[in-house]
Amino acid sequence: MKDSESNRPRLIAAADGSSLSNPGPAGWAWFIDPGRWAAGGWPHGTNNMGELTAILDLLRQTRQLAQPLHILCDSQYAINACTTWLPGWKARGWRKADKKPILNLELIQALDAELPGRSVTFEWVRGHAGHPLNERADSLARAAAEAFQRGLKPNPGPGFTG
């Protein structure tokens, strides 16, 4: 797919998070194709932590790319955190409009460090609705959470190989 502004091909990836009890064993994953994906998680976390971590890891692993990155995500929280809310939170000293602290501060600040200078767009896709990339990211994130639930390490995937 082409980036409309630059006419360069876009790299399209899906990012997703999963938590089995929310909070509970949690996982994250991003997926481009069978040779380029990654997953991970924690013994105890939330789905929002997973959603943000999937995006963060994808940004970090693709930071050397010159081409635009298009991220499909079924979390409106994660998309809004990266695109709409982050600038206001930062301007208010990492506080919400009601002056309360924001959740997932370390992840939000890490995303703030990765996003500038990148051509990144987000697209909301309905979760569990048959979108192939989103379904694969979802299954990888859930598998990571299930691995932590069983006391195992999840398959981290090949990562981004170019």
Structural overview:
With 162 residues, the chain is of the alpha/beta class. It has a single domain, classed as Ribonuclease H-like superfamily/Ribonuclease H (Nucleotidyltransferase, domain 5). Helices cover 36% and strands 24% of the residues. The protein has four helices and five strands, in the order E-E-E-H-E-H-H-E-H. A five-stranded mixed β-sheet has the order 3-2-1-4-5. A hairpin with a 4-residue loop joins strand 1 and strand 2. The radius of gyration is 15 Å and the shape is globular. The mean pLDDT is 93.
Concise synopsis of the structure shown:
The chain is α/β, with parallel strands linked by helices and 162 residues long.
Topology:
Layout: E1 11-19, E2 24-33, E3 36-45, H1 47-61, E4 69-73, H2 76-91, H3 105-114, E5 120-124, H4 132-149
Parallel strand pairs: 1-4, 4-5
Antiparallel strand pairs: 1-2, 2-3
